[in-house]
Amino acid sequence: MKITFLGTSHGVPAADRYCSCAMIEVNGSVYLIDAGAPSVDLLIRRGVNLDDVRAVFTTHLHGDHVFGVIQMASLFNWYFKTTDADFYLTEQAGIDVIAKTIETIDGALCDRVRLKLMTQDTVWEDENIRVTPLPTQHLAHIGRPAYSYLIEAEGKKVLFSGDLSNRLEKEDFPAYALENEVDLMISEMAHFGVEHVSPYLEKCRAKELLFNHVFPLHKLNEIRELDGKYGYPIRALEDGDEVEL
Ligand SMILES: [Zn+2]
Ligand SMILES: [Zn+2]
Questions:
Q1: Which residue range forms the structural domain that includes residue 92?
Q2: What spacing in Å lies between the alpha carbon of 233 and ligand 1's midpoint?
Q3: Is residue 245 in some structural domain?
Q4: How many domains, in total, are found in the chain?
Q5: What pLDDT digit, counting tens, does each position of 70-102 carry?
Q6: Centroid of ligand 2 to alpha carbon of 139 (angstroms)
Q7: What's the gap in Å between 165 CA and the centre of ligand 2?
């Protein structure tokens, strides 16, 4: 599987970073984790055949993770008529407002553009990939869901943390990565400091850990100092970075 990081910024875009979006390619099919970037533009610029996009999985209903869904779903609906994709949102209110937005602008949503509800019981699977949500506590203080995602493809495991709790006070660094070996973990780095995440990095069983969603950016220097400290590579991601597993 190949992962291309189309957007690595935190809640706000930076001069050289779009908001969260990662493209996973397996056997010619395309899957996105979050769509906070102008994702459809970025796929077109890269020459991705939009017909290959099978599903978009958003981690939670914050703009830096979902605003790209509206544009992509709208274009799939009215223009790219050979596309066919699932768009997963984590709250029904998000589905309703996106559906209403698209219907208001474009007319009826077609069957090819499926806005679906991600729940903690959802497991999405096709012949290439299995996607399992793992609840996080990012929005627990306001009674709303948020997820990490475990991606399994071609015998490899990748864990995307999604957004986590402030200062990791809810201890929601994904337990999966502490209890199981994963080939790659992608962790956010906006809601806590290096000092908060370090005890977890010590126990983490990832073979490699990449930070995205970094804020403030002076943490990039601190992340550089983490590399090698726990026996596996650690670095921060930039837009356009690619990883092959
Ligand atoms: Zn975020
Ligand atoms: Zn968030």
A1: 2-239
A2: 24
A3: no
A4: 1
A5: 999 999 999 999 999 999 999 999 999 999 999
A6: 8
A7: 9
Q: What is the pTM of this model?
A: 0.98
Q: Which ligand is nearest to the CA of 10?
A: 1
User: In angstroms, what is the span from residue 190 Cα to ligand 1's centroid?
Assistant: 8
Q: Which ligand is nearest to the CA of 160?
A: 1
CATH number at residue 161: 3.60.15.10
Q: What is the pLDDT of residues 34-75, one digit of tens each?
A: 999 999 999 999 999 999 999 999 999 999 999 999 999 999
Residue 205 alpha carbon to ligand 2 centre in Å: 25
Does a structural domain hold residue 34? yes
Report CA(138)–ligand 2 centroid distance (Å).
Answer: 7
Is 12 within the bounds of a domain? Answer: yes
**Residue 214 counted as domain residue:** yes
Rg (CA), the chain: 17
CA of 85 to the centre of ligand 1 (A): 23
Query: Which strands, in side-by-side order, build the sheet including 234-236?
Result: 124-125, 129-135, 147-153, 156-160, 184-189, 209-214, 234-236
